[in-house]
């Protein structure tokens, strides 16, 4: 059996793979994402390109340490009118982010790459369009009080799988893309490789 390694210590991505029945282990890729983003943006990469490049970098970094393994790298970026946003560092910054997104449509680009022996052998970078409703300041403050620091773990400052869904009026795209790991295509690749039953 070909070993599968997730180039991430993200508990959310690990849970998604486990729930889908894909046996795997996890390793930190050791990629300086902040530095990589600076370089990618300086070279003219758009938010979707940044996600795709970072997913590939993570997969390759671990692949070089695990010969023969199929290594999954993933990254997600938030794109508002072409501007890339990183995770908020405080609840105050999260509130500002949500006020900025309120009543507007943004994109989530979720890239995934699989590398083997130092070469990316498959990748995909689907996007989802999410439109936030024009919620009141009171709603936002109450919602943030309930969510607390958990909003800092997501680039959009929400988790669609819980009360975050209340922020939206329209959602277009694959659920797993929104969660940050587009599983449908990834699992199809692993079936082609014989890792999962066809």
Keywords:
globular; alpha+beta; Maf protein; 37% helix; 198 residues; 7 helices
Written account of the structure:
It is a single chain. By secondary structure, the chain is α+β, with helices and mostly antiparallel strands. It has a single domain (4-192), classed as Maf protein (Alpha-Beta Complex), CATH 3.90.950. It is built from seven helices and eight strands. The chain has helices spanning 11-19, 33-42, 47-63, 91-101, 137-147, 175-179, 183-192, and strands at 4-6, 25-26, 70-80, 83-85, 105-116, 119-124, 127-132, 168-172. Strands 1, 2, 3, 4, 5, 6, 7 and 8 form an eight-stranded mixed sheet that branches. β3 (70-80) and β4 form a beta hairpin. α2 (33-42) packs across α3. The longest helix has 17 residues, at 47-63. The protein is globular, with a radius of gyration of 17 Å. The model has no long low-confidence stretch (mean pLDDT 95).
């Amino acid at each position: 059996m070909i070993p599968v390694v997730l180039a991430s210590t993200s508990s959310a991505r690990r849970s998604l793979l486990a729930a889908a029945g894909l046996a795997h282990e996890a390793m930190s890729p050791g990629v300086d994402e902040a530095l990589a983003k600076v370089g990618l943006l300086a070279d003219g990469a758009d938010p979707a390109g940044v996600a795709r490049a970072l997913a590939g970098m993570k997969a390759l970094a671990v692949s070089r340490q695990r010969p023969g393994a199929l290594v999954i790298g993933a990254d997600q970026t938030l794109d508002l009118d072409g501007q890339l946003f990183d995770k908020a560092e405080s609840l105050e910054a999260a509130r500002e982010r949500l006020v900025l997104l309120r009543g507007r449509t943004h994109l989530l680009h979720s890239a995934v790459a699989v590398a083997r022996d130092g070469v990316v052998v498959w990748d995909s970078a689907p996007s989802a369009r999410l439109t936030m409703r024009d919620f009141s300041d009171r709603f936002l403050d109450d919602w943030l009080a309930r969510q607390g620091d958990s909003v800092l773990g997501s680039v959009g400052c929400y988790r669609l799988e819980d009360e975050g869904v209340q922020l939206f009026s329209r959602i277009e795209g694959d659920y797993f893309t929104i969660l940050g790991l587009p599983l449908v295509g990834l699992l199809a690749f692993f079936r082609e490789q014989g890792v999962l039953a066809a």
